Amino acid sequence: METELRGWLEDRWNEAYGQSGEKLVFERFERLSKGQSSDLIDIAVRRGARTAEYVVRIEPRARQLFLKPDVVREARTLQGFESYPDLPAPKICWIEPGAGLVGAPFFVMERIEGRAPLGRPSMHLAGFLPELTVESRTTLWTSAMAALVAVHAVDWRRTHAFLAPTDLSEGFLGAHLRQQKTWYDWTTQGRKFPITDAAMDYLRANRTRVEDAEPVLVWNDARVGNMLFGADNRVAAVIDWEGPTIGPAGIDLGYWMMMDEFHAEAIEVARLPGWPGAAETQKRYEALSGRRIDDIDYFIVLAAMFISTTLIRQADIGVQEGRLSADTTMAHANSTTQMIARRLGLTVPDLSPDFAAHRQLNPKV
């Protein structure tokens, strides 16, 4: 793969900057990850005085979390942000839609310098967030919230209409639920998962009581962990656009609030000073966006269902690769199935030891 990518990128440089007697020098060619979502390769190149840094994102063809990964769609989504100066995102440099070169489609984007507030078991315990002052954390959170509002302010009919569902017979939320149900069925393969099965039944049964508000560009993975922050603790880029759609803004706000809970109350970890709770988060979003989000608990269950489905898939992959035993309960008993169970009045399962290990949690949590 490396040889093919080096040659391909040199051809793109020749097309963009003209032929040169000098070779393109690769100063860095490093695989960042090989996960379920995609392969990422970090590249730095130089020719004469011209330098550039890129990240290559390769579509997964095995071990994928999602039913139909599509990096070309992701690249088009990012390209659409170029006309929105308030929404920082990596610039797409080239797209390779064919699978012939490296076995899957890929795109090349500019590399953005920044860091994401990630950490296991929680961003409130690990990573760089605990190292910040209260004022800096507040700055980071405020900038992140403004970025989410900017996503929802995108004129999607002008730049992202290709993301809109084609069958709107049940509205935008109904279309989103159909897509989620198709993915869930593919993931579960006919097996019974009592808590997530109940969640899917709840979501479908209660869809019509949730207002199908004016549709927005939905990130479908809206969280601070998918943002890069600069040295000033402000958003430098919004990243990871694998599953965007057009639909109610509550999908993203519910996901944001669910992930906040996932890192805090769900595992009995206190939020760091300067990091608002759920009520203030919703209030701030509504004030900035001018948009009221009703039935937020519905959208939080929808978000927990999304993560629970990824955990079913991750557990299956772990079993296939021999990292987990066939009788693992990770897919049934994790933080998000606990969150669902509490909201739906179901029996809350004890955490699976495999999930606790996966998240580096105290097994008693």
Describe the model.
This protein is α+β, with helices and mostly antiparallel strands and 365 residues long. The protein has 2 domains: 2-110, 2-Layer Sandwich (Phosphorylase Kinase, domain 1), CATH 3.30.200; 129-358, Alpha-Beta Complex (Aminoglycoside 3'-phosphotransferase, Chain: A, domain 2), CATH 3.90.1200.10. 39% of the residues lie in helices and 14% in strands. It contains 11 helices and 9 strands. The strands form 3 sheets. The protein has a 5-stranded antiparallel beta sheet with strand order 1-2-3-5-4, sandwiched between helices. A two-stranded antiparallel sheet has the order 6-9. Helix 3 packs across helix 8 (278-289) and helix 6 (194-205) crosses helix 10 (335-344). It is globular. The termini are far apart. 39% of the residues are buried. The model has no long low-confidence stretch (mean pLDDT 94).
Residue runs with pLDDT of under 50 for 5 or more positions: none
* CATH topology assignment of the largest domain: Aminoglycoside 3'-phosphotransferase, Chain: A, domain 2
- Text of the CATH class of the largest domain: Alpha Beta
Strand order of the largest sheet: 1-2-3-5-4
User: What is the number of helical segments per DSSP (H or I, 4+ residues)?
Assistant: 11
CATH-scheme architecture of the largest domain:
Alpha-Beta Complex
